[in-house]
Write a structure and sequence with these properties.
DNA-binding; homodimer
Chain lengths: ~110, ~110
DNA sequence: TTTTAATACCTTGCAATACAAAGTAGTAAA
DNA sequence: TTTACTACTTTGTATTGCAAGGTATTAAAA
């Protein structure tokens, strides 16, 4: 894929990544690699340097919590879980997303 | 609407505004106020300070051109038109948007 | 004539975001 | 003890959206 096309996609991702993270963690707790895998499966490519600060931001906002868990494969992992406040935010984002989809549909008529 | 909710929407708008502008100008040429009206009709609130730099950026990228036109109602207006390159970009953005919608659908299953 | 209002375009400074790149650290195998 | 793998973190940069304020033209009101 050419560079400009990737840039278009990167710009469009802005603002929906937080929505994606909350969506994923709404199903089950996960650590960073799990989340990256889920995003990859959904065809949403994200890199570590984007994800980690985002998880920390959402944790600081009270949308997520985490617990450490030992791993037999390497260093301990930070498993993130969504909070009640995170679920409220997710509902808010569902509404915002639906509105945005509607906006674009109107403009693309 | 509460502040946090507006912030969610503002963040999601990032990256799709350029798409909206090209969509609007794909139908007919327009000057800034026309475009703001169209966006408002589609429930996408944008302010002048956002729109003007964006139009200039897209013009500099070769996606738009403009011509001046006298007005009986005040100062002359800059009417923007989409270029062939702009239409190519619009097609690219259509694809990117459809992919993004599909991504979110997958994650929100 | 001068002032005011309306319209239109533009700029500046700030905050938030995504990303590339590099860094830190634990575990296990060579 | 060195290397490879995994995992988490930080730094610097570019882009974007927005609030706020500024410039300029025209026409109507004082």
């Amino acid at each position: 894929m050419e560079a400009s096309s990737e840039n278009v996609r990167s710009q469009m991702r802005k603002g929906v990544l937080e929505y994606c993270i909350l969506s994923i963690l709404n199903h089950k707790e996960a650590y960073a690699s799990n989340i990256l895998d889920e995003l990859k499966k959904a065809n949403m490519l994200v890199v570590e340097g984007t994800l980690y600060p985002l998880l920390i931001r959402q944790k600081n906002q009270g949308l997520l919590t985490y617990r450490w868990e030992e791993s037999t494969q390497g260093p301990p992992r930070k498993y993130y879980m969504i909070t009640d406040q995170g679920r409220e935010q997710l509902a808010e984002m569902d509404a915002a997303w639906q509105e945005l989809v509607q906006c674009i549909e109107t403009l693309r008529k």
